[in-house]
Every structure is written in C-alpha cells, then in structure tokens.
Amino acid sequence: MVNPKAASSSLRKAFEKCAIETSGNIDKSFRDITYFGSIKSIRRLSGIKFIFTIVRDPASRIVSCWEQKVNRRDPAGFRFLNQYFFFYYPVIRFGQSFSRFMSAISRISDRFSEKHFMSQCKVVGYGEIPYSKLYTLENINKISDDLAPIVPYFSLDSIENVTGSSATNLCDDTKRLIRARYRQDFELYESLTGREIISDS
Description:
The chain is mainly alpha-helical. It has helices spanning 8-22, 26-33, 39-43, 58-69, 75-85, 98-105, 120-123, 142-147, 172-181, 183-193, and strands spanning 52-55, 133-136. It has one domain (8-193). The chain is built from ten helices and two strands, in the order αααβααααβααα. The protein starts with 7 loop residues before the first helix and ends in an 8-residue tail after the last helix.
C-alpha cells in the first residue's frame, strides 16, 4: 500500500487494527499489510504482493489541505503551517483565503511541492508503480472485498473522516484553477469513478 496524504491517519489506524486482530506480533503484521517506500523499492514487489493505493477527489483534497494547514484559527493551525509550509512563506501564509492559496500553489511545480499539495499522481507514483488495483477514498469499502482472501479479518468499519471537505461552493475561476493544476489527478479520479467533478468550461 502506498498512501501518503489521503486521510492517511485514519487509514493507518484501520490497518493497525487489522494487524492486531491478525497476529500477536503487531509490528510484523503491520509491515506485512502495509508498505510505505520508494517507487523503486515498491516496483520489486510486483507479482509478489497485492499493490494498491487510494486516491481522493482532487478538489476536496486541496480544500481539506487548506482548511487543516492554512485556515485553522487555533495554535495547532499555526503549528501545522510552520511544520509543513514554512519554506513557502510569504507565498503561502497563515489565514490566507483559499483563492490566494490556490493561486500560490498553482505556480509551484510538483518538483518543488510539499506532499500535501503535490499532485496525487506524483505522490503515489502513478504510471511508475505497477499497481494491482487503484481505489478511491470515497469508495474505500471495496478494499475489504478484495483483501478478505489475502488478509483474514480485514475491516475498515472503524475508519473515520473519509468524506473530507467539499469544493462545491468555490467560484468558477477557482475551480478552473484547481483543475488546471491537478489535471492528471482529475483524469485518474474520473476514470475510476466515471463522473466529472469540475469541468473545463
């Protein structure tokens, strides 16, 4: 499994629970079920392991990033901003509007992007890693059916916060900016779900 930044704390908790139920050796079971490594090392698992990743609605993902890391009105929000985005100040700054945040990150290429606003395709190595299957966060329960024969007692019943934030109230210009910045992410997500999120027009 390769899953940086897609409600990853909730997902990791679910896999940890699975490891506890599967074996008394929690660390070993967790390593057997999940793997967070380089693209090169994951390629070596092709044909040996069931390799999968999870992607989410690109628009909701970036709104969630802004809400949790930039727009939080508490000390934790300021700490998150300093922890993840200090390198980008003053382009990205605490409390800035979503439209300004989106305008800023639209000018930062994936090569120089922090993983929270880097394109998902870049983060998960889409096109470079031979995935057995791709899932969407919004249809995450389908994983249980596929993993049941591989991992006994696998369940995502306890997972929380999988729906994330909504991008429905954004103005058209901002929506177009999001789609332009994350075009490949939209194309991948829409190919998996069969529905268009934000149009080009």
